[in-house]
Amino acid sequence: MGEVVGRSSIWIVVALVTCVSGLLPLAENSPAAAQERGLVYGVIVDTTNPTSMRLAREAGFTHAKMVLFWPRLEPNPGQYLWLETEQNDLDNVMRAAAGENMLLVVRVDEVPGWAGGSPGNADLGAIERFYAAMARHGRGRVVAYEILNEPNLPFEWGGPPDPAGYARFLKAAYRGIKGEDPGALVIGGGPSPNTGGFGGTIEDVDFLEGMYAAGARGSMDALGVHNYGGNTEPERDPNECGICFRRAELYRALMVRRGDSGTPIWATEYGWLLDPGRGLGQYDWMKVPADKQADYIVRSFRYAAANWPWMGGMLLSNLDASTSPYHTGPEDGLPWFAILNADHSPRPAWYAFKDLRDQQRTEAAARAARSQPTPAPATPPTPVAPLLPEEAPLEVAAPDSDGDAPPAEGPPSASALRVANTGGQGVNLRAEPGTTSRRLALLREGAVLEIVGPDRQVGGRTWRNVRQSGGPSGWVATEFLSSDG
Q: Which of 9-13, 440-444, 453-457, 468-472 has the lowest mean pLDDT?
């Protein structure tokens, strides 16, 4: 399957119309574990409409994936048109994301004629130079790049799929990106799932085997998977059906066999198709009622949190294809994967996801409150920040060494920021960028921070080097900072 702006490229194997085994037991839900390791909660956004990006943030998503096109961005060698009249050009998508403090994951499709005309024929030097220029321009807002879409399909690759050829393309893109933005994530393009080799395709797991055989390991920070749920619940055993959410586990097993267990997987495209009450052609077998779409989406995030410590990010397909001018065909399925209606009103799945995120924050606040030490009659020792999830820290900042309350905060200066977007729970100050780094302090909502150094990108997030007056310097993820005062 493939999520694109301006065209639809979903590959469905009709033989996989249904799976009929029973429901597996749901594993214990542990959203705190996912937050602790920094699981990214993201969504594919089809347009730069500010309403879409606002609703993505309000639902609780932190990352937005958007799709661009190389021929439009570099129509001639070295001529980079980051801002043109099309709404989905690089500057436009960066501006839309910045307006709601969302972090960007970008996928670039197609190859301009002057560079070869298709991924399978692309000039490796041109690939490296283009991705270097894009990473240089997008640094600080684009935190991850997925390299191509479903390269195991002939019409995506531009000829018979070639795992070794894709590995060469990936390596060139990796060199270009890392040369300009070492902290950005490079994600291997998710293959189309369970094609069965029909129509000149290569089965996804066979394609991955070929990539590894050609030396792809070390040229991607994560591997993409397009683990659409089909018409089954997210807990369904992947050995019982072809297109299902847990197909990601087959990729993980392959990576472990290949000695690449340290590389995470990102679900860069997945979801469930809402039944619109009419025929959708090749998509008919995938349709589920609105309540099931909502339930399955929530359960998928919970399943990943409880069972997949190797999952780095989840990018739901999709937020707003229903509002897009690109998806208007009577049998186009992408508008019905969306969790917004055509008028931007939320569907049940949007509300269900928001409830999940609100619940996570409430539970995190309760854990933070329970972890606060009880003051002793004597002068207490300086408290140690509790081990809390990145998105779920705190009600108050740590007291100073005399046990007094923190001083009142004044207005921020032009170079200062406030802790924000935490729902009143606060955020952790860390010794180094990344959610596994040691916690230095607990910063409450509204705390004023001074910027003390340049940003760094780690784990799909941008981290800012800051300190509170009288406190240590450290790092905070930028989605929890605001310059609004």
A: 9-13
For residue 6, tell me if it sits in a domain: no
For CA atoms 191, 175, 178, 210, the dihedral sign is positive
Q: The tokens of 360 are what? A: 């996570």
Q: 239 lies in which domain range?
A: 14-360
Indicate whether 6 pLDDT > 50: no
**235 shares its domain with 267:** yes
Tell me the residue length of the chain: 485
State which amino acid sits at residue 132: A
In the chain, the number of structural domains is 2
Peptide bond into 318 cis (omega under 30): yes
Residues 347 and 471 in one domain: no
Concatenated DSSP letters for 295-309? HHHHHHHHHHHHH-T
Residue 370 lies in a domain: no
Q: How far is CA 94 from the centre of its chain?
A: 15
Contact between residue 299 and residue 235 where contact means Cβ atoms under 8 Å apart: yes
User: Do 331 and 474 belong together in one domain?
Assistant: no
Question: What are 144-173's pLDDT values in tens digits?
Answer: 999 999 999 999 999 999 999 999 999 999
- What global pTM score does this model have? 0.76
Structure tokens at 210: 């070929």
